[in-house]
Specification:
The complex is a heterodimer of chains A (326) and B (245).
Chain A: H1 3-26, H2 37-53, H3 58-75, H4 82-100, H5 102-125, H6 136-145, H7 162-184, H8 191-213, H9 217-250, H10 257-290, H11 297-317
Chain B: E1 21-24, E2 30-33, H1 38-64, H2 67-92, H3 98-103, E3 105-109, H4 117-125, H5 127-130, H6 137-145, H7 152-157, E4 159-163, H8 187-199, H9 205-216, H10 229-242
Antiparallel strand pairs in B: 1-2, 3-4
Helix pairs in contact in B: 1-2, 2-4, 8-10, 9-10
The chains are: A mainly alpha (326), B mainly alpha (245).
Amino acid sequence: MKQSLFEKRHAQDWQRFATRLEALEGSRRKSESGAGFSREYRQICQQLALAIDRGYASHLVEQLQQLAMRGHQQLYRHRSQFTAQLLSFVLADFPRLVRAEWRWVALAGLLFFGSLTLMALLVYGYPDLVYSVVSPADVAGMHAMYEPAARRIGQTAERASSTDWLMFGYYVMHNVGIAFQTFASGLFFGVGSLFFLFFNGLMIGAVAGHLTDAGMGATFWPFVVGHSAFELTGITLAGAAGLKLGWALVAPGRLRRGEALRRAAQISVRLIGGVMMFLLIAAFIEAYWSSMSWPPATAKYLVGASLWLLVGAYLILAGRTPHAPD
Amino acid sequence: MSLSHAEPGFAAPLALLDTRVRMETPEGIDLIVRPAGLLSRSIAFGIDLMIRGVLLGALFFVLGTLGDFGTGLFMLALFIGTWGYMVLFEVLHQGRTPGKQIMGLRVIHDDGTPIGWSASVLRNLLRFVDMLPFGYCVGAFTCLQHPLFKRLGDFAAGTLVIYRDVPPQRPPLAEATALNPSLPLLLEEQRAIQAFAERQDTLSPARAQELAAIVTQPLQLSTSPDPHYPVQQLKGIARSLAGES
């Protein structure tokens, strides 16, 4: 068949398909424009193959190629049952993933909590050590923050409840930023994640050791115990995701480095989704519960301990049954 | 025509000379995409940065009047602006942020399918690494090194930034009397002649004559002292190939 005849015969179909594509590209809503789409798309594909095979002019081939490309984008368009996916991720997939990657989680946890505990004990024993990681100005700032006389504690000495909003925003911005940093820097063969895990452990340990030593433990510990479960676990998991990413580059196994990285990244990005969830919860608790000073310290410790138990039980037990909610 | 011959039209498609990439789809056709280079991507990023700057700046003044509550909201907005802007636009707006839309770019998966949540989150989180040590040095370097202009984030997420196609202009059919070629032509040859007829307006007359003269002999075309005669003949063949009289 000659090209002009071919064009004459199908020009109307192409025009109609193009109009339909425009409608689909313009909106994300479901519409009647979806009915029969795949049949028309297959037709375009077939006509494109024919046009190439018969050696028709390049402008015609290009026109069909673009129609096929646009049709392809619409046919394979990202379809999400967002709520259902989210629910199954929270209830089952995320804890399962954490258990499947337990080696990285254990390594990151060891590094982070190990450096934290060690530094806290060291600073508690040799108080001057705190100045090796925290500047004197920051130490003074911490003193003002956790002064036992302060009615509401946290970032500033006196806080009204409207400040809770301020602090919520601040914690989200700051903590999630740290977690993302810890994760992304894992791309440098894991070194970045190792560094940030270790460094953040040292900093937090130094602060905790110093404040306890300086006699402010009574304000410091009840404040942090509430949100620490979600926050510290979140940072550990972010580090684990980063380490996994880096290890794929160090030891790709039988795959090429690029392919190994892509596969590791697909898994670790889901870990990061869970980290986001943890850190949002942590920021919420930190801004609205931890900052309250009226509950007695015992209540705060009790809530903190049960939150730690909750996080532990969630990561270890959730999603064990094969038919978790879909 | 039997398939056993090594006909160019049936052989595997030739590698493309320019930066375009073929992607085979389940439908058995090749999609051809053009990866976007460093400059247009940088400009698109600059535009996005400006849009975010202006929006957040305006928001800062509005929410600033609300005291601490407003500042908290502003920080949340800042968080969403920093980490969510690119992801939300890429996933919900067919792979295009406003900057990319202005520059005619869009993001797709390596296999040509539209970008999804996990790939978009990944490529945008790893921006942090591409930005190091300052001003996107790592990203620019890897982008220039990679044949498909990928930065590290694209590499890990398996994504590709491509140009959106502009609709092809239909070139006017060559003005000539249709002429049947004296020899059967292979597909590649037919396409070459058609491409020549489409583009000879953009060539200088001397160059067009020079090119046309090359094939006069092999195609056994009649000769004439007029130097423009071979060009006219090729245009005639192209016209007859297209099926016009």
